[in-house]
């Protein structure tokens, strides 16, 4: 049975700067509603120190939101920095008279700032922010369904939960692809690049290489049984034994025969090789039977 890992956001604590930043912001306590209201009144009066106090008290919430947008080829610390910009914008724009907490208002500005940074920094072709938000939501639903169903969910299953059409879900995934440099690291803190992971179809795997070498050895051995003229024709038709590949006209001229007769000799030689090959396999089979 396939084993699935929990779909959780992991903070990159291996990065010393992030660990230091987390310790620093944890020193600031969360404000009470009354303290928030007093700060907001002071901010409306133009007090920049009040803005700083409101922002620093809510920095931990930015980290929590930024972790939701990890693995988009943008470092977590960069996401946090962009989220902090949105937090500062929200601190200036917040209206405490509306009757809700500051973070409920700020979360939208934080997300908008992060999404904008992702769109501008990691895509060669910019796409609308709502498209990125839709992709983030679709990925989150997809991860949850994968844990539940123990397989990749279909667009229909994702669309049913999100309340969107299958076409819209398909559009999110189709247009949400990222452009990644082949010279960038394939894994975090790794010297292996994406270029190193590409399959080289011109290079044979060791098993195929051994099989081909074995076949060429057998083929060259069997060709030696043929008359010299037929050996010459096959070697220059297929490039065996390092011989130059020639055209039928060139081969016919070199053996002083017509093009049609050369073609006949070629197929006669190939049929002879097939008979030799089948005969050898039959002998090997009889030896194994004994």
UniProtKB/TrEMBL annotation:
Keyword ATP-binding applies: no
Key word Cell membrane present: no
One term of GO molecular function: sigma factor activity
BP term (GO), one: DNA-templated transcription initiation
Ranges where the RNA polymerase sigma-70 region 1.2 domain occurs: 17-48
UniProt keywords, alphabetically: DNA-binding, Sigma factor, Transcription, Transcription regulation
Pfam families from the UniProt entry: Sigma70_r1_2 (PF00140), Sigma70_r2 (PF04542), Sigma70_r3 (PF04539)
SUPFAM superfamilies the record matches: Sigma2 domain of RNA polymerase sigma factors, Sigma3 and sigma4 domains of RNA polymerase sigma factors
Domain RNA polymerase sigma-70 region residue range list: 54-119, 140-208
NCBIfam families hit by this protein: sigma70-ECF
PANTHER family, sorted: RNA POLYMERASE SIGMA FACTOR RPO (PTHR30603), RNA POLYMERASE SIGMA FACTOR SIGD, CHLOROPLASTIC (PTHR30603:SF47)
Protein name, entry field: RNA polymerase primary sigma factor
């Amino acid at each position: 049975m396939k084993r699935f890992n929990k779909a959780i956001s992991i903070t990159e604590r291996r990065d010393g700067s992030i660990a230091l930043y987390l310790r620093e912001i944890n020193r600031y306590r969360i404000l009470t509603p009354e303290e928030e209201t007093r700060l907001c009144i002071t901010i409306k009066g133009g007090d920049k120190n009040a803005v700083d106090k409101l922002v620093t008290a809510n920095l931990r919430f930015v980290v929590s939101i930024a972790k939701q947008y990890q693995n988009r080829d943008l470092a977590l610390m960069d996401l946090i920095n962009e989220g902090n910009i949105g937090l500062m914008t929200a601190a200036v724009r917040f209206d405490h008279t509306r009757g809700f907490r500051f973070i409920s208002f700020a979360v939208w500005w934080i997300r908008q700032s992060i999404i904008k940074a992702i769109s501008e920094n990691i895509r060669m072709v910019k796409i609308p922010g709502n498209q990125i938000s839709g992709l983030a939501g679709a990925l989150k639903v997809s991860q949850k369904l994968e844990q539940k169903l123990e397989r990749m969910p279909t667009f229909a299953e994702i669309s049913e939960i999100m309340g969107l059409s299958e076409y819209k879900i398909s559009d999110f995934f189709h247009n949400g692809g990222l452009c990644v440099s082949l010279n960038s690291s394939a894994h975090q803190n790794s010297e292996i690049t994406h270029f190193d992971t590409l399959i080289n179809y011109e290079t044979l795997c060791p098993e195929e290489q051994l099989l081909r070498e074995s076949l060429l050895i057998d083929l060259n051995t069997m060709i030696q049984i043929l008359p010299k003229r037929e050996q010459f024709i096959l070697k220059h038709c297929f490039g065996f034994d390092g011989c130059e590949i020639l055209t039928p006209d060139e081969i016919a001229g070199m053996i002083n025969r017509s093009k049609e007769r050369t073609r006949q000799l070629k197929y006669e030689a190939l049929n002879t090789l097939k008979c030799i090959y089948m005969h050898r396999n039959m002998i090997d089979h009889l030896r194994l039977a004994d």
